[in-house]
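Q: A reviewer asked whether we had any structural model of the full assembly, not just the individual parts. We don't, so I'm hoping you can provide one. Inputs are below.
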Amino acid sequence: MDKILQINNLRTIFNTPEGIVHAVNGVSFHISEGETLAVVGESGCGKTVTMLSILGLIPIPPGEIVSGSAYYHNKDLLQLPEEELERIRGREIAMIFQDPMTSLNPVLTIGRQLTEPLTLHLGFDQQKAIQRAVEMLTFVGIPDAEKRLDAYPHQFSGGMRQRVMIAMALGCAPSIAIADEPTTALDVTIQAQIIELVIRLREELGMAILWITHDLGVVAGLAERVIVMYSGLILEEADVYNLYENPCHPYTTALLGALPRVDYTRHQRLDSIPGAPPNLLIEPKHCPFAPRCQFVMDICREQMPQLELIGSDHQIACWVDIHTGKSR
Amino acid sequence: MNQNQSIVHIDGLKKHFPVMHGIVFERQVGAVRAVDGLTFEIHRGETLGLVGESGCGKTTAGRTILGLYPLTEGSVKIDGHDINNKDSENILAIRRKAQMIFQDPFASLNPRWTVNAIVSEPMRVHKLFPDQKTRTEKVKELLTLVGMSSRLVNRFPHEFSGGQRQRIGIARALAPEPLFIVCDEPISALDVSIQAQVVNLLEDLQDRFNLSYLFIAHDLSMVRHICDRVAVMYLGIIVELASRNDLYETPLHPYSQALLSAVPIPDPRKDRARNRIILTGDVPSPLNPPSGCRFHPRCPIAIDRCSVDEPEWREIASNHWVSCHLV
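A: Here is a predicted structure for the entire assembly that you could use as a starting point for your response.
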């Protein structure tokens, strides 16, 4: 499969009155055509900032992209002038945001919001755009689509709004859809509906999906490849089966151990991760997880481990082999 | 003390919020039936989970049980004290025995108060110690108990992270030495790695002080982990109540089945092999709940009778209660 998006050594910082916030500290990954890639991490790990940096949505200032490149086909998105980026953003790379309550404009009808990208990006006339909007709404499972075009966002429930967001993102048939915690604000039953919908869309439209989430449960059922982030760095990258069955980074194993499971009958104590999430005001010079890691060695507090292949499609950035507890 | 002694009795609890219309001649045009008849007991040292989708009335139930909202109908007894009895001594006794841990650790601590003032307030109100000095000693003890340094007593809430604030909230709840704590989504605002810390703390405290918890949550995996019995709520009523393993292994109500099948499992092979029951639509409005069984418009197995008759609350197996015509 061809890589359609290649990110290299991306670094993003924010200049704040308290000091420099090191949000993304050198992240490299790729997405292939038609692939579902999940980026997992806790709040503040840099997963959302990574996505916003790629799409040129970081407010500058206070934000600053210090280094890196993001190649979409042969164009570096980070170097493109704004007008060219606008042609790609929304049309070829679409976004689905976390909060369907706030990411729709409350004073415009759903129809207006759905047709806008179609007239803007694809040059559709009004009639054709409305026709396409109805098709998309029906496709994402909103009944009576034609009538619903005149409705306002507040007339929809949370799950329905997220469907509208998805319809809007997919209207221009993008080749990549970036979804930032699209189900976090929803109930489990509605989350199951949305995941089902995304799986169907992926199969029928064949686009690549970058799914950003903190929920390791959702990822298991959806993704093909998973990236685990912490403190603005990638700590582990593997295909989904490898990651869950043979996690090799201490942070990944700790996260999985801290997760209660609905399918476990025996009551066992959760393995909590001691300590607190990292302070982003300090630039990581060594492994950022070292203060909380149970396998920590001297080198972990001195040098930064680099991502290294440890199997096919399986990379970790760690000095330790967790199976032996010794240096790799 | 007898482990099976029940400490909280709730009988036919209802909480309706009136919907008013008009400005000068204000009149009631309807009621949001947020909680519409709950009956259950909580035993000493037990954790009862209350689960359901947002808008099902679980938070309102928790608050009404503690008397934070005046109830519309029914009765709540906490360790023998009736919440309907408005006698100030009685209310004070309930306030001391029943405490609450709130969902949002950023909104539930007064930003102008020090940790010392926050945690010692319940002791001051209930006159537990003669002077502030002994109360401060007790605050330090409580902070150590919840896994924080006792040197932090003079700090302010903004100096702490979400997980630490939730620990302060727990210390405050423990201060008047309660028997019963309502935990209203105590971990849903926290990161996974911090969630496990707080849940382990809640379990340790329960073992140590023989506390009873009403654990309100929408995270069904966590509920399975921490609760002894679980009640599934839908649109203001409980549709199923059973011990943890009975409910998760053999859910009987179609809503419980759908809810459980929708929970993702962090294991790709298991998760993908599962048969999901996908419910259509959303939870209807509690302003005008459906006739008959409230779940029938979304129920995959509903028959004609379900839209007419309200199902009875029946004990199907020992301690396994369900309200459905088809079980």
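A: Points you may want to mention in the reply: Chain B has a mean pLDDT of 89. The first strand of chain B starts at residue 6 and ends at 21.
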